[in-house]
Amino acid sequence: MKYILAIDQGTTSSRAILFNKQMKIEAVSQEEFPQYFPNSGWVEHNPNDLFETVINSCKNVLKKANATIEDIVSIGITNQRETTVVWDKNTGEAIYNAIVWQDRRTAKECSSLKEQGYEKTIVEKTGLLLDPYFSGMKLKWILDNVDGAKQKAINGDLLFGTVDSFLIWKLSEKENHVTDATNAARTMLFNIKTNKWDEEICKLLDIPMNILPTVKDCADDFAIVNKKFFGKEISISGVAGDQQSAAIGQACFEPGMVKSTYGTGCFALLNIGDKMVTSKNKLLTTIAYRLDGKITYALEGSIFIAGAVIQWLRDGLKIINHAKDAQELAKKADVNQQLYMVPAFTGLGAPYWDTTCRGAIYGLTRATGPNEFSKAALESVAYQTKDLLEAMKDDLCNFDEASNNKTILRVDGGMASSDYTMQFLSDILGATIDRPEILETTALGVAWLAGMKVGFYPSKEEFSKNWILEKRFNSNMKSETREKLYDGWKDAIERTLTRK
Ligand SMILES: Nc1ncnc2c1ncn2[C@@H]1O[C@H](COP(=O)(O)OP(=O)(O)O)[C@@H](O)[C@H]1O
Ligand SMILES: O=P(O)(O)OC[C@H](O)CO
Fold it and tell me: Which keywords describe this protein according to UniProt (predicted)?
């Protein structure tokens, strides 16, 4: 048997997944690694943990499938985005821990740059906002705060990369310092109009440009894995950031197509075609994919807390034992109570970008209990998605037209398995929710990129036909009820925001 090996290096674990010729999953292996929180709002990973858990997962997945490296046609890598690594190219060691996408340590620096009026340039060139979320600010922090780092960078001794880039450099035994366009687009240093690293922004942040990797297409010759790792050389021919990879795995190749991934957070991407649109509503513009040098753009809404609110019910409040129990409690909730939970545990992401507000619950009575809490928690994810979709519609006046007045949202991620949540999502959006058979769309996307590059998988058009619906959810809610419920949510948000 021949397979494509997809590596999915995520925020809490590394996974390796084998896809067969029919693009079906043959085996999965997963390994978690420690999270470090050295200060309030700081989140770090040890880069060696990322690399080692990737290697272990790859070896284990081969064992599970009873396969050998001879069976692997090529490798695809998808990764947690924005997370930043800086390493010494002579020793091969990172000079600081990886600073994770969730890390907020550069909030003050961002505010000061905003006050000096730089956000407009950042938005126009990169499609992003001036926010600690993105790699550029994290890279600046490392160069400014690690002893001797700036001088070493100027001397050409240091390299920067998002996680894909770091893994490829290690796997190729220091040969290839590369990344793909979707990861580059999350650094705040890459001009998504000109398709190049941006000199002006690098100057503003005092980042020497020799530290940056070469940017390739998503399906490209990235590197050859050194034979010391798996006993045989093997090509890496597909790379994409995890949310873009999920959009590809969901075959969102036409303008107007949207996917929404419900993991720890929620990330919705809307394909907007080959023209860059800048959002009026604080959505991000990003590269959905770059194939044969041609960019397809997406509008992205990022919600920081989705499935994590269910983890909080389980680990914090201890009112459920397993994530799947939440919907069973929700079904028993008192219909006469209208609770709204705003899970702003670390502030709110799109479209509010309020870093200082914190979570709140409205509508508590003496009769409120675990059932109502569970219902409000699940519903909060749907309301937050509606905020994103409303912003997308407002940004793209022809959004409904482009989708024939029928908004269809393709969903994936752990929380998408909750029928109750998906039905409420459909009801509150007044849209159709399509859940595919393969929920591992992140890995599938990059497996297809790698397989397509080496001729193992078919073209984009054929791949789209491979997308198979598992379940469709249609809205059953009256529009007056929808409006009333959503008005209540907006009121809850208004009361929670610190930045009015
Ligand atoms: N049946 C369910 N109902 C509600 N939430 C769920 C359910 N199953 C999983 N989740 C949530 O989904 C998340 C896990 O999804 P996953 O896609 O594995 O996330 P990640 O890749 O971010 O770790 C968890 O936060 C969990 O609380
Ligand atoms: O690793 P995940 O699935 O939590 O995804 C993280 C995103 O890429 C952050 O932008």
Answer: ATP-binding, Glycerol metabolism, Kinase, Nucleotide-binding, Transferase
Regions in the chain scoring below 70 on pLDDT:
397-405, 499-500
Residues tagged in the binding site annotation for ATP: 11-13, 264, 307, 311, 414
Using a cut of 0.95, tell me whether the model's pTM lies above it: no
> What is the predicted ipTM?
0.97
Task: Give, in order, the Cα–Cα distances in Å from 327 to each of 318, 343, 358, 410, 416.
Answer: 15, 17, 25, 20, 12
- Which CA distances in Å does 459 have to 158, 242, 294, 297? 38, 21, 15, 19
Nearest ligand, measured from the Cα of 43:
2
Q: Which of 102, 264, 378 to mutate to test the pocket of ligand 1 (most atoms within 8 A of CB)?
A: 264
Q: What superfamily would CATH give domain 3-243? A: ATPase, nucleotide binding domain (3.30.420.40)
The pair of three-digit structure tokens given for residue 346, joined into one six-digit string: 């670390």
How much is the mean pLDDT over the chain?
A: 94
Locate CATH 3.30.420.40 in the chain: 3-243, 250-436+468-500
- Class of the CATH domain delimited by 250-436+468-500: alpha beta
